[in-house]
Model the fold of this input.
Amino acid sequence: MALSDAEVRRIARLARIALKDEEVAPLARELSGILAFIEQLKKLDTAQVLPMTSAVAVTLPMREDVVSEGGDPEAVLANAPEQASGYFVVPKVVE
Done:
């Protein structure tokens, strides 16, 4: 699948990437090559391939689920740069 210059410019705009005019054609060739490779991968029969979360079969160790008193809040809050009413005070990040 070959991408046109207009399509590459639109993709760049959507990705908020500034492109110079001389960068459009090489990027179009590169993206078209990536899409061609994906088309090749689509032709593979993966019906018998099981989904995996890791390249190595690993079983995570399990531990007992034990109820505890939890941490010592005063000791934890002693490390806080600022605290109020038993909680960490953090800067507001959403207006």
User: Anything to note?
Assistant: DSSP finds three helices and two strands in the chain. The longest helix spans residues 21-42. The first strand starts at residue 83 and ends at 84.
